[in-house]
Structures are given as structure tokens and as C-alpha cells.
Amino acid sequence: MKRWLLIAVVVVSSIIGAMIGSLVTIKNLADRPTYNSIDQYQAARVLPVARVDTSFRVPAGLNFQLAAKAVTPAVVHIRTVLGLGSFSMNALDSYMNPHAQSSGSGVIVTDDGYIVTNHHVIEDASSIEVVMNNNQRFYAKVVGKDPSTDLALLKIKAKNLPFVRYGNSDNTVLGEWVLAIGNPFDLTSTVTAGIVSARARNIGILRDKNNLQIESFIQTDAAVNPGNSGGALVNLKGELIGINSAIATATGSYSGYSFAIPVSLVKKIADDLLEFGQVQRGLLGVQIADVTAELADDEKLDVVQGVFIRSVNSGSAAEAAGIETGDVIQAINQHLVAGVSEMQEWVARHRPGQTIEVTYRRAGQSHTVKAVLKKIDGSQELKRLETPKPEGIELEDLTYGELNQLNLDQGIRVKSVEAELWKKSGLSAGFVVTHLDKVPVDSIDDFYRMLQWKRGGVLLEGISQNGQRGTFAIDLP
Fold first, then answer.
1. Right CATH number for 286-372 from 2.30.42.10, 2.40.400.10, 2.60.40.3500, 3.20.20.30?
2. Which pLDDT band, with edges at 50, 70 and 90, does 41 fall under?
3. Which residues are part of the catalytic machinery?
């Protein structure tokens, strides 16, 4: 009897426990929300201690997010088609004989479409396509280019674009955090971080026919690879402090160091190209070398840093200022210069006719003089790059009224065609040219400037007198 009573108590207890457990489970299930996505589930599962957004707690000197967000939309992908061959209207010819292509990066510096990039990115390009961060596409024209600094200025026809504001590369310090933004390996909008490793670095990669190349790079350890060329180097304020141009590598890929043209030089070159179509280079007119301990011993100098004057050119700015062979330049405009590359950068920021202050050492004493810079030919005249007029074709600009009547935004009219070069394409008088290699043509001067950078096959697009759209392929010499 006692055994059955014990069994009954155990069974009843189990049933009551099961009922209580079921009620608790049902209540918990009823309180649990329904998840429609993994994102919602994961968000609800985050521990309370981790729900606080810690980005606002990052020290100002280590917060890369604001700069990356501000600059990325203004760094573009540049795609170029290379080659000097003839242009074919036959799609099969293009398929069987494709043109070589390359790519790089560029930085929008005005909201109406001026873009700074490297000269080597667009060198020998027959067509330049600009791809925005949001995948918008434009065809760009070359405003000007300068191999001696490896810089070029492009223009696309657009408005209200995001752009990167200039910073001050003179204020960069060793150890400062910087971001490199570009399109390495065709991977658009890539951001890498590093620090400034050195300044005024010369790595001997540029060449110029007059030996006027300028290498005064900002060296960083931000990862830069093929395709980054022409992209932005910015500080953590999102200000442009350099244009990424080169890497030190034995493999062709990033090996630890990258080099950028300082924005102090970029600004001057871009302004020259915009105003004159070519760089206005002011020169002291001296042959120079870095002062080293060995050179100081050989020349019996009392300093071991600076720029040694090996010779002074006759009729140069240096000669007129009283600078002589054997002097050691120590400062330009009161800015100390440790070597050739740094001095060249400071001089190159000025145009012919402008005056700089030169501090030099001679026979144990320091002297300061003013030198009026000259061009390589000894003159001080600032001249715009002459745009050659093509022979055998006469053009005329259209008035706004004529453009409105034709329902066009831009274009120029062909008045006459005489040369066989133009005739054999089928181009005739009355045709309105609206695009050259897909780039809008706004005026005759615009057409001539674009044409001067073209070689081989080009494509003219527009409308004929009867309103029909037409395309003509021209083989330039």
C-alpha cells in the first residue's frame, strides 16, 4: 500500500512539474519576437555592452572614417585606350585587332569637372574614360600635361560634382596618418592607410629632355598598387596633400613604400595647365648637387647639408643675383632645403618673372639675395601653348540661337573641306560636329586643343544639314 502511495506522489509531482514547465515555455515563446532576416536576428542577439557605437570614441588622430567618406566620391577611375592605329567603323575589326588599354585614378578638384591625374596614366591615350564612384561615365579631354612632374589636367562636362579640397603639404610631418584612395587592380574606391615616412624623396624615375624633372615625393607606407596612380593622398581632415604616383618595388606590386607628388606642386602645375595649356617653369639656372659629408670634405665646406652649386649658367637668374660656383644654397624663401629635390620643388612653385629669396653659404658666411626667375631660354615671358590649326578644313562657331534651333548643347559647323585627309572620310560642309572621340566640342578653340593631343584614328560625331546624325572616322598623321 505504501509503495503505491509513493508511486502516485511521484507521478502527480511529475505531471505538475511538466505543466509548470510547459506554461513557462509557452510564455517565453509568446514573448519572443519573430525575425524576418538574419540581420534582425543578429542585431537582437548582440550583447548590450556591444550595442554602443564606439566610432565616436576613436581619437581624432586615428579616425579614418570621415576622411574616407568625404573623399571617396571625388576619386575617379580612369580608363584609357592606347594605340596610334587607324579608326575602323567595322566592329569586327575592333574585335580582331583590339587596342591596348590601361587604367589608373584621378582626383576631381572642382565641381565643374577638372581632374588631376598622372601624366603616365593618360600618356599616348587616344580615348580617356572617367568612371565615377557612383558608376557615372564621362569621356574626358586633355587640358594639358607635364612629363617633368608626371602630372596632367583633364576636363569632363558635368556640374555639381564632389571634389577634394586642397590641403597644405608643407604642414605634413613624419609619422602623420594619411589615406591613399584609388583604384588598384581595377578595384574601385579602395582606401588604404599609412603614415608619412619621408618628405622630398627623389627616387630617379622621371626623365625630361632638358633634365628638368622634379622629384620631391611624399613617401608613405600606405599600400599603393598599379591602378592607384593619379589617386588621392589625403590627411585625416579629408584634404588633398598629394597625388599618388609611384611605388618602390622589385615585383611590380606594393612592397612597403609609395610616393606621392606634394599638393603644393600639384596646385601650381594644374593652374599653369589651366591658364596656359603648358607649365610656366621658373629657373635659377644652376647645375647642382646634394651636399654630403664626402663632398663637404672635398670642397672644404663648413656645412654638411644643402645644395652645392657646381656651375652657374651665363645670363641666368642666379648669375644676375650674384650666386657663384661653390656656393651652398641653404634656404629658398626662408624655407630650409636639405637637398636638391627639396630646392627644386620650392623653385618650381614659381613662374618666370617671379622673385624668390635665396639664402646661401660662402666662405663661412651666410648671404641672402633676391633672384628673378627666368625660362630655359633666358626670357621671362609667359606664353600660352600654341594650338596648331589643322589644314584643309574650315570651321565656324554656332550662336546660342543656332544651337537652340538644332536642339544641341554644343557644336561647331564645318564651312568647307579641302584636304583629302578630311574628304575621304565623307565629311562635308554643313555638318555640325558635336563630339570628338565622344568628348563634347564646345567651340573651335576647344576642337583645336583636343585635336593637338590626338594621333592616329579619331571619331567625329554630329548632325548633318538635314538633321540626320552622322559619324566620321578620320586618320590623323
1. 2.30.42.10
2. very low
3. 120, 150, 229
